[in-house]
Specification:
This protein is mostly helical and 85 residues long. It is 86% helix and 0% strand. It contains three helices and no strands. Helix 2 crosses helix 3. The N and C termini lie far apart (44 Å). The mean pLDDT is 89.
Length: 85
């Protein structure tokens, strides 16, 4: 099991910086939808299931994007954000 996770991590780290940013941006709508669906007139059980799925997707996109970007990508983003201020 651990070997498979290491293989997946190496595969994700081989993707480009741009792909990592796109994956991170996919997390934003999932976070919004996971909480916005609470306003829908549906059963509590359905709301719970929707929240679980959407929040889980958001976390998956978040951690996947961070894995793709890596430490050097995070430093790159910080440099760009500090210059633009």
């Amino acid at each position: 099991m651990k070997e498979n996770l290491i293989k997946i991590k190496k595969m994700l780290q081989g993707l480009s910086f741009r792909t990592g940013v796109i994956v991170l941006l996919c997390a934003i709508p999932c976070y919004i939808l996971s909480f916005a669906q609470m306003a829908l007139p549906i059963s509590t059980y359905t709301k719970g299931v929707l929240w679980f799925v959407l929040f889980g997707l958001a976390k998956t996109f978040q951690y996947g994007g961070l894995t793709i970007i890596g430490v050097e990508g995070i430093k790159r983003l910080k440099r760009r954000l500090s210059i633009s201020k």
